[in-house]
Amino acid sequence: MSEVINASQTNTLENPVLNPMSVYDHEQVVFCQDKATGLKAIIAVHDTTLGPALGGTRMWNYVNELEALTDVLRLSRGMTYKAAISGLNLGGGKAVIIGDSKTDKSEALFRRFGKFVDSLGGKYITAEDVGINPRDMQYVNMETDFVTGLPGKSGDPSPVTAYGVFVGMKAAAKERWGSDSLEGKKVAVQGVGHVGEHLVKYLTEAGAKVYINDINQEQLKKVAQEYGAEVVEGDALYDLDIDIYAPCALGATVNDETISRLKCSIIAGAANNQLKDETVHGKILLEKGILYAPDFVINAGGLINVNSEIVGYDQKESFAMTENIYNTTLNIFKISKEKNIPTYQAANQLAEERIAAIGKINQKW
Ligand code: NAD
Q1: Which terminus of the chain is more solvent-facing, meaning fewer CB atoms within 10 Å of its CB: N or C?
Q2: Alpha-carbon gap, residue 124 to 161, rounded angstroms
């Protein structure tokens, strides 16, 4: 993940698929087409060294097939790293269905997709992602058992995700200020949806001074009233005098424009891909002395929770496993300091080391 994968740069007319796949060594990419249901989907299996490739299915109106391929390759690789650093016996995979989630859905389309997932024999396990709802996944589940995160099973992952972000933030506080107490710390939470709201709860209980921001005014008001958090309108959030910035809405909010405005000491939040360009912005944060708790490390609670469905834990156990994000995050900071490398790079190295080590064990009887 040290570079942003860009299939369009590696894709040529002569090598439209295998070339981009080879950049980050994807194992298998499956193209699924069915005229009768209108299904057009791509399933990417990045790496199964640690176990079956798990990752959600996203339905999105991609501009073209290349954009869909780029997205599925990038996302599936991200899942490999997230699972590896979280100590899970899972590989990384992802699927994208090309289409408009508001108009192109049907029972037949999802059941046909389920048959494609099933044809991989468990090498790829799917779940919900952007544009997909529980009902869609129930249709997929009618054709394959390789589905997780269904209603009535491991349940809403958001509380566990928020807890992981909270302990990751505490680890960052420990590293920065010598104590992991968040009492009196000024924390700005951007996005108070499923994860953000739970995070606000944990922060309030810990005695932090919480600022919140969301484009959904109703939700913003509700969370402000419930937890006594202070509302900050629009992008004024980037100019606040705060200790911690917690992006819990969108990716890429740490970019050329915001990085010069941010006055925080720590960035720790739930959003995926917070750094617009890892190599560029990870380095700038290191130079500016802003401690970045890598997103895919501290937001892994949701994956840990969904994994519980496969291995038969309950949510209590998932919370206990998620607690370990604290130690992992501290370890990443240690490596980053020792090697003077950005924290995201230290996290990537740790994940790659685990994959290599367990891969070797698996070669032996
Ligand atoms: P959500 O959709 O419930 O909440 C996101 C919130 O952000 C919404 O309230 C939305 O109105 C707000 N928002 C959108 N654009 C905004 C903007 N420009 N400025 C301010 N607020 C804005 O999503 P969620 O499940 O809470 O996930 C939050 C983030 O964490 C996402 O990036 C998601 O990919 C990531 N994540 C979630 C989980 C999980 O378990 N839900 C796990 C890992 C990562």
Answers
A1: C
A2: 22
Centroid of ligand 1 to alpha carbon of 157 (angstroms): 13
Distances (CA, A) of 260 to 27, 159, 200, 281: 40, 32, 26, 11
Q: How many structural domains compose the chain?
A: 2
Residues 121 and 180 in one domain: no
Which atom of ligand 1 sits closest to the CA of residue 249? 7
Q: Is the pTM of this model over 0.70?
A: yes
Looking up tokens 């997103």 gives 295
Q: How far apart are CA 262 and CA 214, in angstroms?
A: 18
Q: Is 45 helix (H, G, I), strand (E, B) or coil?
A: strand
Backbone φ/ψ region at 291: left (φ over 0), alpha (ψ -120 to 50), beta? beta
Query: DSSP secondary-structure letter at 129?
Result: -
**H-helix or E-strand containing 188?**
strand 186-190
Atom of ligand 1 nearest to the CA of 196: 26
Do residues 64 and 182 share a domain? no
Residue 39 tokens, joined: 């299904």
Pocket of ligand 1 (CB under 6 A): 157-158, 161, 190-196, 213-216, 219, 248-250, 270-272, 299, 302
Per the prediction, the chain carries an average pLDDT of: 94
- What gap in Å lies between CA 365 and CA 362, rounded to an integer? 7
Determine the Cα–Cα distance for residues 217 and 195; give it in Å rounded to an integer: 17
The pLDDT value given to residue 2: 44
